[in-house]
Design goal:
15% of the residues lie in helices and 33% in strands. The longest helix is centred in the first third of the chain and has 12 residues.
């Protein structure tokens, strides 16, 4: 197995049908993701699984209890027909310095904006992340995130664990992606075609998602 990125925060598995994807994950792994919370105003909600330590898997899809948003849902959810690992996040020691360093190397990860959500137990989570049209469209270059003094999603007491065994990226032109990964301080094995497969350890053995 390949070494995992040192500052990996989470993987994003986006889906057009959250309940169906959570059910499939549970069936394949024997591990049931738990509700994370709603992204109010964005039309999405998520379910989570710990990947070990301070790393986790976010399964995100439409929140049918929210009104239809007037803009596209995050992570291209509206355009999906099947669940897919669409991107990942790294947590640099200093988010603003990491953004400046990336721009100095010719890659703009996008503007930094604040977000929040409440866990089902009422705990407020707050974070800042890079988000913008300048981010690489493949999703293979991670966005940057900073939880600051907020509780991290992995601190939830009911979060099940599926240890991450491997994460790789596939791209038609790997040499295009590698310098962008370097610009944001991320290391990842890249081959081709486009994809972000990962493998977790489960009671039913290693399971790979794509």
């Amino acid at each position: 197995m390949n070494a995992l990125p040192a500052r990996l925060d989470h993987l994003v598995l986006a889906t057009p049908d959250l309940a169906a994807t959570v059910g499939e994950f549970t069936e394949r792994t024997g591990i049931a993701p738990v509700a994370g919370g709603a992204h109010v105003g964005l039309g999405t909600r998520n379910c989570l699984v710990s990947l070990g330590g301070s790393q986790y898997l976010e399964i995100i899809g439409p929140d049918l209890e929210q009104p239809e948003p007037s803009w596209p849902r995050p992570f291209g959810v509206d355009g999906l027909t099947v669940a897919r690992t669409v991107t990942w996040a790294v947590a640099p020691p200093d988010l603003d310095a990491a953004v400046a360093a990336a721009r100095a190397q010719g890659y703009d990860p996008g503007p930094v904006r604040a977000m929040s959500r409440r866990r089902p137990d009422g705990t407020l989570l707050e974070w800042r992340l890079t988000d913008g049209d300048t981010a690489h469209p493949s999703g293979l270059v991670p966005f940057l995130i900073d939880w600051s003094s907020s509780p991290h999603p992995t601190t939830a007491s009911d979060l099940p664990v599926a240890p991450l065994l491997e994460l790789t990226a596939t791209a038609p032109v790997p040499d295009e992606i590698r310098p962008l990964l370097s610009a944001v301080g991320a290391e990842l094995v890249v081959a081709g075609p486009v994809g972000l497969p990962f493998t977790v350890d489960t009671p039913r053995g290693p399971v790979t998602f794509r």
